[in-house]
Specification:
Layout (H helix, E strand, L loop, with lengths): L13 H9 L7 H24 L4 H19 L13 H26 L6 H22 L2 H14 L15 H10 L7 H22 L2 H13 L5 H14 L5 H19 L3 H13 L10 H10 L3 H30 L12 H8 L3 H12 L4 H15 L11 H14 L1 H20 L1 H12 L4 H18 L2 H11 L1 H6 L4 H13 L9 H10 L3 H11 L1 H12 L9 H23 L8 H14 L4 H26 L9
Helix pairs in contact: 1-11, 2-3, 2-8, 2-18, 3-4, 3-8, 3-19, 4-5, 5-6, 5-7, 5-19, 6-19, 8-13, 8-17, 8-18, 8-19, 9-10, 9-15, 10-11, 10-12, 10-14, 11-12, 11-25, 12-25, 12-26, 13-14, 13-22, 13-24, 14-27, 14-28, 16-17, 19-22, 21-22, 21-24, 22-24, 24-27, 25-26, 27-28, 28-29, 28-30, ...
Length: 651
Amino acid sequence: MTTENNSTLEQSPPVLEKELVEGRKRELSGWQYWVVAGIALSASLFHLYTAAFGLLSAMYQRGVHWMFMGSLIFLIYPFSKSRPKNKIDIWDWVLAALMAGGCLNILLNWEAIAMREGMPIASDIYIGTMMIILVIEAGRRAMGWPLPIVAIIATIYALFGPYFPGVLAHGGFPLEELAPFQYLRTDGIFGVPLGVSASFIFLFVLFGAILSVTGAGQFFIDLSLALTGRSQGGPGKAAVVASGLMGTVSGSSVANAVTTGAFTIPLMKKSGYTPNFAGAVVAASSTGGQVMPPVMGAAAFIMAQFLGISYWDIVVAAAIPATLYFISIIAMVHFRAGKRGIKSLTDETAPRIGRVLREGWHLLLPIITLVIFLALGYSAVKAVFWSIVLMICVSWMGKPQYRMTPKRLLNALIAGGMGAVEVAAACACSGLVIGVIGITGIGLAFSSFVISLSQGILPLALILTMIGSIILGMGVPTTAQYIITSTLAAPALYQMGVPLMSAHLFCLYFGVLADVTPPVALATYAAAGIAKSNAMKTGFTALVTAMAGFLVPYMFVYNPHLLFQGNIFQIAFSFITALMAIIGLSAGVQGYYIAPISIPERIALLIVPFLLIVPNLTTDIAAFAILVGVYLLQRIKAKKNSAPVPESTQP
């Protein structure tokens, strides 16, 4: 959102970049801007206050949160693209007021509502019906039609259960029962997803917004160039590292792609990478930000609530898979650079690590503080709150243009409030779906369906879950995709012997990878726009570049040591075998190892990852033998090709 009276952010935070690219938000000025900005600022201050002094009880915390977020959606997003973006329509003011009124009804009358639970009065039914409609419309405006359509289908399923066939049939629930259930319980709109948004996610979005204003984006890019720029294909590797670093504080793949790609994509193209590949690398690595600790995507916080464990446990479990994912993209870039003969950056173009750290070392302190607080057992709310406080303080150690002056802080708080609305909309809309799953019992029926369809064969069940997660992830945000698939499919995988952590991470990974899976690959579209490349070709290139991401989830399902379970020797050995799989896959896909490879060598390398999915000493040795064998064969070929040609004898 911009304004004509110098109210814009001096540096747009990553959490808002998606909206800046798509241009779907209104551009307001004057009193309308200040009303919207005041609501966003109030939301930020409320969440900071409860983080410092303690969260309110569930319905109060979630009610205030959704009152701010739901109202903002109708004021920020117009009804359609054809509506003017420089003013708020009168009916949007009405819808925002109705949304606020529905939340205030809970906040002001909660004791009476709780006393009559199970015996709704007429107002509960009317307001509940209104809130269901408003949540669906808010989701449509913030995210488009896919998730609201899922919510509508779920609502129809709950109302007309007897008319559905087979195992899908149920007794049905009249609107008089469904509307209060969705509105007045912590199972529907105000369920776990919105609860996580109200307690954790908002603060982390705010953390990213404030960190961006302090110049962290440029620091991460400079640090990446300093670390990798002088190696083979350095600009490409710098793009991967920069996206990984930015991913530690930004859970949005599209925002990550825009923030880092604006600098790294032109540099990659200048170095010799094709526009398609440059955009693909940024899209694939930016997508990994949603699974990159310590600040993963919003779904990770919901996962902690679903599993009943601390967020730190999720961070620890996700560390090795995320590292493997980024190493795989670096390997793809390395082998592509070797194949195309792309050189490293020169000393003149690559910054020195010492200078970069001298100028921006203070920006690492809030992230380090966040990790330490989580590791010490503090709640994620307290950890991010004190990290925000520290970040504001240390900003004064940096360049003057990045210091957190009162004006910059005010703008960052406003931007954080506005940047959190899309995730909140996804959580509220997903709550409708979760409510239907809970009230109808369809979750148990779906689990039985997956088990019966796969005939109890785990690999087939995993493939079915993967396909479902990707398809759903193409249409809805990762958070909503994870909520739905983990509720439906994860229990089935658990019944087949997959640990719950592995099952939930499996669902999350493939929902994330939907962002680089054509035809709907949002991160790819953003990167392709910067690279000026064909979006569909870039999408398929990104899919190939991220191929190891499709391998890693299967590996940690069959090998829980990759989730930091077991002793250090088991974990280290599993990590090494996973690296072997990634090297074989990357070299085989790119057609280059230490030199261009023949078709038989390529086939042999592509076999390596399949040998290493299931832990087995025999297949591990076979995979190692293939990697070493192809390496030695290429060394022999290289020596023959470089041998001097004997001079011909003179007659």
